Amino acid sequence: MKSAKVRIGVDSVDGFLARARERARKLDRGEKITPEIVISFEDPADMLRVLSAQRIRLLRLAKKKPMPVADLAGQLKRDTRAVSRDVDLLEEFGLLRSRYETNPGHGRRRIVDARASTYQLHAAI
Q: Can you list the residues of the chain whose pLDDT is less than 50?
């Protein structure tokens, strides 16, 4: 099941702690908390290194439907190995997920799926 939203941004430890306190207060009041994944970078340059233009195109395509790495590479007009490396990196940061399935007569293939239906990027310089 996909999360409703992944929020990617630049934030400090203080910002993380403030969000955690606010969520705890909501829980104490019995309020419902909307599920989301939050990925924070301390430096905007690090965020831009991870979220290159090619990787953002990959995220957009993976959001549409789960598909094999080879199909993603074909639609993006990129080398399969390069797309696979990008999937590895985005999966490491929790933005994508992948699984292997049997590809009859050809071994196994890696299927890539988005972690959320919405990705939000937030940065201030």
A: none
